[in-house]
Amino acid sequence: MLNFDMTIDGRPATADDTFDVINPSTLKPAGRAPNAGAAELNAAVAAAKRAFATWSQKSDAELQAACEEVAAKIGENAAELAEVITAEQGKPLNGLGSRWETGGAGAWASYTAGLSLPMKVLQDNNEGRVELHRKPLGVVGSITPWNFPLLIAVWHILPALRTGNTVVIKPSPLTPLSTLRLIQIMNEVLPAGVVNVVTGDDREDNLGALMSAHSDIRKIVFTGSCATGQKVMRSAAETMKRLTLELGGNDAGIVLPDADPKQIAEGLFWGGFINNGQTCAAMKRLYVHESIYDAVCDALVEFTRGVPVGDGLDEKSVLGPVQNRMQFDKLSRLVADAKERGEVLLGGEPGEGLFFPPTLIAGLKNGDPLVDEEQFGPALPIIKYSDIEDAIAQANDSPNGLGGSVWSSDVEAARDVAKRLECGSVWINKHGMIQPNAPFGGVKSSGFGVEFGEEGLAEYTDIQVLFS
């Protein structure tokens, strides 16, 4: 059993109660986490506010050095953190699983440490000098989801630290253990109070709601569903918090008629099934031109058949279970409905426990629930189109706008289509491959604000213009 304390003001912190964290592969407890409430949250925010007074005054070089130390600590503890992720989240250790996630977290932390937002001179002449300075906000509240618990925590925390802010993070109650351990590790090299973590099961005192309304938290960065993001916005309004919201997606991929089905099959699979489809920027619906529709379906089925699914701790597993019962039930409902409307090419029947086989369903259309709703699991609808204008219109016919992709042997033709998609990121002949030097964020109901790169770093700052 994995049991970690919270970290508040640099010290271990407990709560009056704890809650079980379930391993989705076994449906048995992986560990227990503190079930905190308002008192523990207030203590964490107060610690972060005190720490901000000195942390925010550190030089740019000092902040960079501290973040580099954090990145190094993540790397040193990557093997342990990967084991914790697999135990609570279910994803395999191998492939694009927990070891990949911890490696990405270390690399992301290291890259973010090297970013900077230097002062800009807007004017310097006989009429005077005008400088633009970036100043830290204060206490940043981070609320993270269960699909990439460690990586997304790093995405939230490192830019906040790099810009002189302090942090209180609340992980999902489904996957709190890796974040609890991560913050312990960070506090080995950071001053007390700079990064704090609180956990709770969200049944009574909803820590997320308390955070978004807290008067001493200047910014909330939230990754999660559109519905919860709307609640965060409403709750944050009275205190005029800064917000970065990376919300749900229903990403579309469009395969042009000149694409090679066998050549793109592996990329299509991972575009849709990375992290077992439990990724905001995974491909959730695939539009294929009628001239190669059958060939693309056949190639996808052939590749998908060879992907082993099993317990994440089994070194042979490439995909694991669905992370939780609520998501499993939603996926099962959508697939059951799709089976009545289309043709199941592969999978379609729920397995034991929370295991669900990679599922491919043909013959669906816009308006069908599996196409219109974000399934967030291992099921991909494949939709036939005859006219590219119609495909673009169908791809854009969604309240979401996180990512999209175009697949073609002609990159320039693909780029022309890509620029017409209503989404924050578009990939050519791949999908969902985000990177730390490229801003990432959604349009429409998929949120606002961006993460990563200098643009993401700037989201953690106020602008101050100095005239002299």
Automatic annotation (TrEMBL):
Molecular functions per Gene Ontology: phenylacetaldehyde dehydrogenase (NAD+) activity
Top-level taxon in the UniProt lineage: Bacteria
Domain spans labelled Aldehyde dehydrogenase: 16-464
InterPro entries, A to Z: Ald_DH/histidinol_DH, Ald_DH_C, Ald_DH_CS_CYS, Ald_DH_CS_GLU, Ald_DH_N, Aldehyde_DH_dom, LUC3-like
Keyword Membrane assigned: no
Positions of the catalytic residues: E246
EC number, UniProt record: 1.2.1.39
Protein family membership: Belongs to the aldehyde dehydrogenase family.
Protein name, per record: Phenylacetaldehyde dehydrogenase
Primary gene name: feaB
